[in-house]
Amino acid sequence: MAVTDFIAGKVAAELLEMLDEICRKSFLCKPTAAQLVTSIQDLLPTIQEIKYTGVAIPPPRQRQIDALSETLVRGRDLAHEILNSGRWNFLKNVQLARKMEKLEKKVSRFVNGPLQVHVLADVHHLRYDSEKKFDRIENSIRQLEQRLGAAKSGVGGEEGGWLEEAVRRAEEEERCGGDLVNLGMEVAKRKVKEMVIGKDDFRVVGICGIGGSGKTTLAREICRDDDVRSYFNNRVLFLTVSQSPNVEQLRSKIWGMIIGNDSVGSSDTIPPLTLQYDFGIVVKTLVILDDVWSLPVLDQLILKTPGCKTLVVSRFKFSPSVINCTYELELLREDEAVSLFCHAAFGQNAIPSGSNEKLIKQVVDECKGLPLALKVIGASLRDKPEMFWTSAKSILTRSQPICESHEIQLLERMRLSIDCLPEKVRECFLDLGSFLEDKKIPLDVLINIWVELHDIEDKEAFAILVELADKNLLTPVKDARYGDIYSSYYDISVYQHDVLRDLAIYLSNRENVNQRRRLLMPRRETGIPKEWERNVDKPFNAQIVSVYTGEMREMDWFSMEFPKAEVLILNFSSSEYFLPPFIDNMPKLKTLVLINYSTSNAVLHNLSVVTNLSNLRSLWFEKISVPQLPETTLPLKNLRKISLVLCKINTSLDDSVVDLPYLFPCLSELTMDHCDDLTELPPSICKMNKLKSLSVTNCHSLRELPTDLGKLSSLQILRTYACPCLRRLPPGICSLVLLQYLDISQCVNLASLPEGIGGLKCLEKIDMRECPQIRNLPRSAASLRSLHRVICDEEVSWLWREVEKSIPDLCIQVAEACFNLDWLAE
After folding, report:
1. CA distances to 522, 535, 558, 769 from 530, in Å
2. Is 749 exposed, middle or buried (0-12, 13-18, 19+ CB in 10 A)?
3. Residue 240 phi, psi dihedral angles, 5° rounding
4. What sign for the dihedral angle of Cα 468, 471, 472, 476?
5. Do residues 791 and 817 both lie within one domain?
6. Is the pLDDT of residue 495 over 50?
7. Domain check: are 40 and 168 in the same one?
8. Total structural domains in the chain?
9. Would residue 245 count as lying in a domain?
10. In this model, does residue 565 exceed pLDDT 80?
11. b/e for 428-458, b at 16 or more Cβ within 10 A?
């Protein structure tokens, strides 16, 4: 942050005081001074925000702040001169009034001009620059199951210890009910009650969520609720289905509730519950099916009689065709978590007076809103001295298990959710352990890894993603593009609950370190784990290797052999990074991912190890200063995909530095996203004849596209969205005869579409929302016979209505104004 940021804020405040005084004393300058007061008052909060956030401003914005600072300094001097000018000097006062008018116009132009133009760009930049989690609910749990252990201090007896006893006590409380269930469930209970008693057209409703999130607790509270029992005349039946249910016994209990005969047994003749019955009168009945694991079992237990409603509680989210409406259980907010924890630890809903509030909140924070953890850890610390609490907090912070037996018990219990998955889906779930906790997982990276490792197509990989999401084993980001056929996976992310990540790592680490299929570092370390170092004398058979460190120098690496490695993920936080020499010992490497989590772009060293990767198929660089490849680099003939995200391009792609078509002869996908220093694409890109997808997005300095872009004869997808400095598309774009999708959305200064756009005979979809400068369409647009869908703003939609007369199947979708900043909530 430059010194001028502080000067601008200070001078603006001083100038405001002087202008107020001028409004009272100077007749000639009063109207202008009043208008200046309004402009500066609008501007001052922004200056103060820049001043106190401590965030570095890009050079173009900094120059604007510098210019504003100089203007305000001159304004302060001018105001001082006005205040010191005598009223009798009329000529001088007129001259000063004119200067004041010029100053006011200059400030107003800044407020209404550059400050407004960059708002959209700033929002996009913030989204990708932020290293904090996107979702306050699903991403914040850290190594939870591994922390539930018990340092052997205080352990009593051979069958367990103080923590296992606490677990049994917490589980008993959940089975028997009590005041504990009322804590942290108000919102969830209200919403589920609305589904149960407020929606008569919903026959089957559901509660879903990960293990330990409080599903059963919530369902039991619904079962005991006075309003619910009154609505159903006390005809409420709670049944636990489990993974290995006795279906006939469950059916007999349900049938007995329906006919009002509790003595009905499994040996009695029970008609199919799935048939529609009409008893002549409507008898309201609620059946709660807890811990449902499979759809075939559920199908046998759902009632079809009038007035009967079924509440299904499961870790999995079943299809809307089976369950009309499902409530996805959220984790607890901070105040709810404190209340639940204190109830377990102290028998009251608040932190007791005189206790160590800071320590208690630190322990609560380590539970990260998961009800099971709050109850278990809270109960385990009941009546323990403060020194014991401090020790437990330190253990949790270090992510060490407090009790090995209980850790295994919990993880083995959650393992049931994974063992029932198809083998390929199960393997894809275990791959998720390769990514960091509390960090977004780029969908493009994940899909690409699955495609390369499991020999599947993109569509099958996405289907597996949806299946894992439906089973609450990962969480897709809330994005309108999610699932669209032309979705840009590189700027869409998924998340995984840390408990589930722990489970994936636990299941992956059961073999000897040299035999593991996935060699993973669960958390950041200063160097290579000691366990790896002790076994470097033998080859590692891992297919996936995931490393997370700080700065690494040449001497920090060890000689390691990875004859089977196909995926290498290098996570680090540093401004400089020496690539591991063992990459030379990865002959089968197909996917290389480098993600830098520091605040500045990283400079890479030892780049020569990449030049010999003859089998490399995809490369992902994030927050890297893209280096110049050595002159000895041989063509990477198998490389299909390059993604540069938040990178500094510098001159690394200039034609004078690198011959792109020669080095990457088979490249089919090129992505450059949030590369702020990219002003233009190198002309040699137009010679990459195998390129099918080109995405240059959120590049705020990009001024133009190459003139010969039309030579990309294989190009099917072109994205240039959110490039505010892009003013025109080259006419050559109309020669892209295979182009199917064009995305120019949020190019706020793009003036028009090319006149010959009708030459895009295969174009199926255009996204041009938030392009306010486009006020007419080329006549040739009526020749876009393959065009099926256009997304645009209301102001442009009427232009396409005319084109629609020539293209009957055209769907014109008016984009909704979206000012959702939920992603900033954290």
Report:
1. 13, 9, 11, 53
2. middle
3. -95, 120
4. positive
5. yes
6. yes
7. no
8. 5
9. yes
10. yes
11. bbbbbbbbbbbbbbbbbbbbbbbbbbbebee
Closest-CA residue to 814 (of 765, 747, 767): 767
Amino acid identity, position 486? Y
Amino acid 784 reads L
Domain CATH number, residue 309:
3.40.50.300
Do 761 and 694 share a structural domain? yes
The CA-CA-CA angle for residues 226, 242, 272, to 5°, reads 80
Domain limit, last residue, from 585, 614, 648: 648
pLDDT of amino acid 428? 95
Token digits for 279? 């008893």
Q: How far is CA 709 from CA 227, 246, 641, 642, 684, in A?
A: 67, 66, 19, 18, 10
| Same domain, residue pair 789 and 770 | yes
Give yes or no for a contact between 646 and 673, defined as CB atoms under 8 angstroms apart: yes
Decide: 28 and 91 in contact? Cβ < 8 Å: no
**Distance from chain centroid for Cα 778:** 38
Structural domain for 598, as ranges: 511-648
Helices (H), 287-419: 295-301, 334-346, 357-367, 371-380, 386-397, 404-419
CA 33/CA 82 separation, integer angstroms: 11
In 67-148 the beta strands, taken as DSSP E runs, fall at: none
Amino acid at 748: V
Asked which of 472, 507, 542 is the last residue of a domain, the reply is 507
Distances (CA, A) of 71 to 31, 107, 655, 697: 19, 8, 42, 34
| Of the listed ranges 154-158, 748-752, 770-774, the one predicted with least confidence | 154-158
Contact 653, 626 (CB under 8 A): yes
How far apart, in Å, are the Cα atoms of 663 and each of 13, 591, 622, 625, 629? 57, 17, 21, 19, 10
Residue carrying structure tokens 């989590």: 597
Give 477-481's long-range contacts (Cβ < 8 A, gap of 24+): 477/134, 477/135, 477/440, 478/822
Both 42 and 10 in one domain: the answer is: yes
Domain membership of residue 140 (yes or no) is no
CA distance 544 to 453: 9
Q: Indicate if 286 and 315 belong to the same structural domain.
A: yes
pLDDT at 748: 92
**Closest by alpha carbon to 719, among 752, 759, 674?**
674
Q: 213-217, 515-519, 575-579: which range is least confident on average?
A: 213-217
pLDDT tens-digit profile of 687-697? 999 999 999 99
Establish if 536 belongs to a structural domain. Answer: yes
CB contact set of 234 (below 8 Å; sequence gap of 6+) = none
Same domain, 444 and 545: no
Which residue bears the tokens 């579409």? 753
CATH number for position 727: 3.80.10.10
311 Ramachandran zone, left/alpha/beta (phi>0; psi -120 to 50) = beta
pLDDT band per the 50, 70, 90 thresholds, residue 214:
confident
Q: Which of 72-81, 161-170, 432-441, 648-657 has the lowest mean pLDDT?
A: 161-170
Q: What is the widest separation between alpha-carbon atoms in the chain?
A: 112
| Parallel, antiparallel or unpaired: strands 693-697 and 669-673 | parallel
Q: For the chain, what's the residue count?
A: 826
Same domain for 321 and 209, yes or no, is yes
* Buried-exposed string 467-479: b where 16+ CB fall within 10 A, e elsewhere: bbeebbbbbbbee
- The CATH number of the domain holding residue 480 is 1.10.10.10
- Assess if residue 449 is contained within a domain: yes
DSSP-H helix ranges across 154-293: 162-176, 186-197, 215-224, 226-231, 247-259
3-state secondary structure 321-343: CCCCEEEECCCCCHHHHHHHHHH
What single DSSP character describes residue 771?
A: -
